[in-house]
Amino acid sequence: MKFMKIGTKPDTFYTQEASRILITDTPNDLVIRINTTTYHLHRSCLVPKCGLLRRLCTDSEESDTVTIELNDIPGGADAFELCAKFCYDITINLSAHNLVNALCASKFLRMSDSVDKGNLLPKLEAFFHSCILQGWKDSIVTLQSTTKLPEWCENLGIVRKCIDSIVEKILTPTSEVSWSHTYTRPGYAKRQHHSVPRDWWTEDISDLDLDLFRCVITAARSTFTLPPQLIGEALHVYTCRWLPYFISNSHSGFSVNENEAALERHRRLVNTVVNMIPADKGSVSEGFLLRLVSIASYVRASLTTKTELIRKSGLQLEEATLEDLLLPSHSSSHLHRYDTDLVATVLESFLMLWRRQSSAHLSSNNTQLLHSIRKVAKLIDSYLQAVAQDVHMPVSKFVSLSEAVPDIARQSHDRLYKAINIFLKVHPEISKEEKKRLCRSLDCQKLSAQVRAHAVKNERMPLRTVVQALFFDQESSSKGESSRSENQELFTRGKETPTDKHSMMLKLHLGPASTGKAKNVLEEGCKRGEEKIRSSTDPKKIVWKGTGSEHKHHVSRDR
To answer: Model confidence over 409-436: pLDDT tens digits?
Structure first.
């Protein structure tokens, strides 16, 4: 942080009631009133350096005490006192924290070089350009301080110059970043780093007011230099900084007693951040989008904002994790813990896009689309397992979400079965009809053998589901036995009638000279083997070695 010290004399101002008085032997002849504060000063010190006071005191006699009201001076009494101390050569310390007020006040008082050489205004401007704008944090602190005097700072160009300085440093290659910055990512300080991270600037600019932050991000994006992911990271850091309940998915982060002013502030933040999210897919994480959707509902954000968030969340749903979906319910009318309605809405948005892409018959994307929806199906089934543990979860919401997933999306129903089983275990009081509704989307044919065996013995499952599981389990077992017997029969026949020419050559041990004869022998042997197989399988040529009665019995059965 840069500082500038002006003046050599000690501070001799003191306060008496609501007045600020200077300790001196000379009687005061200038009274300055600024709102509730009164300054007792001397024209001989202030008038030569302040063009405004010089004009206001021109008509007064030198022996008279002049009283002037300066209620509209930018920066108020504190800024005026800095200028007054400069006129008395009293030491003042200037930094990014008080520079803006002093700069605007000196401009208001017309303390320029044209009034008096070496005046305060040119000194402040030189400090601003040569020191403040050259520093990273100085530029940010100065920019933030302009919120108290927006019109003055805009007219003096302070806002634009600070933003340009900040953006210039953001665009600086990381190898050239040498100024101090704040970076407190978890675990970052413990590791050894050879270079500055690409998002080194995101935490410092998160201290800015929302409008100033938006101006900085907009200016940085207009250069088309920063990747969308960096813009998204800056938005994420800023949201975590100013939404106290954003980083937590628990109910404790939300205050039911939050006043309307705070809700309005947070509503405006959500609306602004959503409008700033880059259109590029993946510029922000799916977890970030889902939490924004949840908070947007809580703070009653605009319909446009919520619609856009749901659309963006649906585009990236396959990138979500189970933790991302476990968002708290903010409805006072619902006792259940998780916001299943939000997840169902985002899932529907995803499915609408998926169906639209699938109907386009893009063969190059078919595999990718199938992989995408199967990944989402696994995620939803895992989510169902989690919400099934909520004792207040209604059957209707669980069923609605489980049935929303298309049949093609689930290769296996093992995860769905586990979710249903957990729900039945946690909710033993539900009726038979509700149990049937729960298992309506369960396909026992898509259960693995182990899970199907568990379902057959599961007393919590409805009888119809158990019967279906038993049927498919027996069918699978019979198919397995039939397949094994067919394989055994083919293996036996292969042993009796070898037809592999190469293996017969090896058995004959023929040399190279006898190759031609060997081929003839092999061909004749193969023909005889095939005729033998056909004759052995022809029922009319079967020779029975049993008794006559047995022979008659078989003949009559064949007929």
So the answer is: 999 999 999 999 999 999 999 999 999 9
Give the position of tokens 């476990």: 326
Q: What are the tokens at 505? A: 């050559």
Element (H, E) at 56: helix 51-56
Q: How far apart are the first and last CA of the chain?
A: 108
pLDDT score at 490:
44
Could you confirm whether domain 3-132 is CATH 3.30.710.10? yes
CA distance 291 to 245: 10
What is the C-alpha separation between 139 and 273, in angstroms, rounded? 23
Q: Which amino acid is at 256?
A: V
Close Cβ partners of 470 (under 8 Å, ≥ 6 residues apart)? 456
Half-sphere exposure (Cβ direction) of 263: Cα atoms closer than 13 Å: 14
Residues in contact with 415: Cβ distance below 8 Å, sequence separation at least 6, in sequence order: 378, 381, 382, 384, 385
Spatial CB neighbours of 451, under 8 Å, sequence gap ≥ 6: 414, 417, 418
Angle between helices 303-315 and 340-358 (to 10 degrees): 60
List the strands of the sheet with 19-22, edge to edge: 13-16, 19-22, 37-41, 30-34, 66-69
Q: Could you tell me the residue ranges of all domains in the chain?
A: 3-132, 497-558
**Spatial distance between the Cα atoms of 404 and 347, rounded to a whole number of angstroms:** 8
> pLDDT tens digits for 39-98?
999 999 999 999 999 999 887 776 678 999 999 999 999 999 999 999 999 999 999 999
